[in-house]
Amino acid sequence: MVQYLDNNSGFAQWASMQNQKKPEKKFSFFKWALIFLLAWWVMGLWMKPQKTEVVNTAPITVEQSSATKQTVFKDEIDFTVQGLRVSNIALKKHKKDAQSNENISLLNNENNFVEIGFVSTDTVVPNINTVWNDANDLMKWNNGKKIDFSRQISVDGYTIKITDTIKNNSATEINVAPYVQIVKSTNEKMSGVVETGGVVYANSKLDYAHWNKLDKKSVAYSTVRGSLGFAEQYWETIASIEANDQTISLKKSGDLYFAQTNAAAIKIAPNTSVDVNTYLFTGPRISTLLNAAADKIPGIAKTMDYGWFWFFAQPMLWMLNWLFALVGNYGIAIILITLILRILIWPLTRKSYVSMMMMQKMQPELQRVQKLYANDKARLQMEMMKIYQTHKTSPMSGCLPMLIQIPIFFALYKALLISVPMRSAHFLWISDLAVMDPYFILPVLMGATMWLQQYLQSPKIQSGANDMAASTQRVMKWMPILFTVMFAWMPAGLVLYWTMSNLFGILQMYIIKKTSK
User: 309 vs 408, 409, 410, 413, 434, CA distance in Å?
Assistant: First the structure.
């Protein structure tokens, strides 16, 4: 990317010429870009759910439950049920790292759990210490006041469904309000690239509250029906009550983070019963899984964080997974996707390289008019424009591939960071393409290929060259070193992409030079 900024692209001459222009009252490209970014930011604020000052009445008790524990074993997950609480969720198809046989486990600390229960001022409801009668996977309890509670737990993939049936055998109407409380401790403070922390879907809009934000203040929402929970880089725990008129809050108390929601009280007439369904997704942040759970948990599909360049990141992640299914290795898939992208931008790349070579041929003419009209800036500008028109080129044409690659680069960066299968993908000496190269081999190769690409397209500065072009080339010589240091701590998969992009760029430049003679 950086090679398009050197003196041979004509950008230096163009910038020098622009500095000589008289001020005009029209907007520049950078002013329009600033307006666009500002409008995007305002739109993002508008799209967020409206926060309201509501009081959540869900219990905030985190004391240990004395209810009987039982473990539920399913194909994708195992988890512990202890009365009202669900915890110790093991993701059986995902290991801690490439070398470990230990499963990823969510809500596995002593005070981490999901609690699904009820509050009522009319009758006694089960609490965290209630001892249920368990028969044929059906939990039953009677409160001694002619109110029967039963709970059925079923699992579909990574989605747990809790169906509570409340039967009123008394002679008076009762009111019972369902609630969900997710309690989590976390040390994850670093992810500024992938949205993590509290997640709320309220009033058809998604909002995040990062861990650091919750350290400072609580947030609350009011909605007809929504969902809430916590998201990490690769995993998330999201819950939703199938009931209307909910209040949702995210807060921190002590060392624990709380995601709580209360639904409006449900009236249960004498000799009638009511079913309340609560859904809990606890698993990897994979779009197909989230989409499958979206009909049960509103808004969960939107928790897949593709970033600003989602229109590139989403198809890029799909293509990456498709290529992996084809070749069986994510490293090879990254190489193939690099080749495909290079082929797609081939017309722009060719135009850029041809323009670059033309600019090299124009150097003597440009230097001549710069000396001849050094004291007449208006005439200098006019003569330089004539030269560009004569050779049918533009200094900005060398920047087109760079402008295209910027969103592609950030989109692929995001795709690699949110790809769950990538976190344990190996390639040659690299055991995990989602983390840095432990031996720094790839960053060094990337820096070397960047230097080679720059060297091949940057001839020596002739005597008499303008100062700006010379200083630009001196600065550009340091770019491979700077990028090597920057990329040393980036995901190996991203560095692999950039290295292969440099290599394919060198090959394309060789082909264009051969065919342009």
Answer: 8, 10, 7, 10, 19
The residue written with tokens 């002013």 in the block is: 31
What single letter denotes the amino acid at residue 100? Answer: S
* pLDDT, tens digit (0-9, with 9 covering 90-100), for 283-309: 999 989 999 999 999 999 999 888 777
Give the C-alpha separation, 17 to 401, whole Å.
22
Q: Is the pLDDT of residue 23 over 50?
A: no
- Say how many Å lie between the first and final Cα of the chain, rounded: 25
pTM: 0.75
Strands (E), 195-234: 197-202, 205-209, 219-223, 227-231
Mean per-residue pLDDT, 220-230: 91
Q: Residue 360 to residues 9, 220, 356, 398, 469: CA-CA distances in angstroms?
A: 8, 61, 6, 12, 12
Task: Count the helix, strand and coil residues of the chain and give each as a percent rounded to the nearest 5.
Answer: 40, 25, 30
Separation of alpha carbons 282 and 159, rounded Å: 7
Neighbours of 52 (CB within 10 A): 14
Work out the average pLDDT over 412-416: 80
pLDDT tens per residue, range 39-53? 555 555 444 444 443
Average pLDDT of 495-500?
Answer: 88
Amino acid at 289: L
Structure token digits, residue 145 = 């006041």
> What is the rounded CA–CA span in Å between residue 279 and residue 300?
11
Q: Give the number of residues written for the chain.
A: 517
Task: Give CA–CA dist 24/31, Å, rounded.
Answer: 13
Cβ atoms of 283 and 235 closer than 8 Å: yes
C-alpha angle 182/283/274, rounded to 5°? 55
Report d(CA 320, CA 303) in Å as an integer.
20
Residue range 120-142, pLDDT digits in tens: 988 999 999 998 988 767 999 99
Residue written as token pair 């909910």: 246
Largest CA distance in the chain: 104
- By DSSP bridging, strand 235-241 and strand 227-231 are antiparallel
Strand partners, 220: 249
Q: How far apart are CA 488 and CA 443, in angstroms?
A: 5
Q: Is pLDDT of 261 > 90?
A: yes
Torsion, Cα of 384, 390, 396, 399 (10° steps): -130
- Kindly report, residue by residue over 325-342, the tens digit of the pLDDT: 899 888 999 999 888 888
pLDDT attached to residue 181? 95
DSSP label at residue 489: T
Give CA–CA dist 307/319, Å, rounded.
17
What is the DSSP secondary structure assignment for residue 427, as one 8-state letter?
B
Could you give the domains of the chain? 69-305 (2.70.98.90), 312-515 (no CATH)
CB 267 within 8 A of CB 173: yes
* Angle, helices 11-20/467-476, rounded to nearest 10 degrees: 130
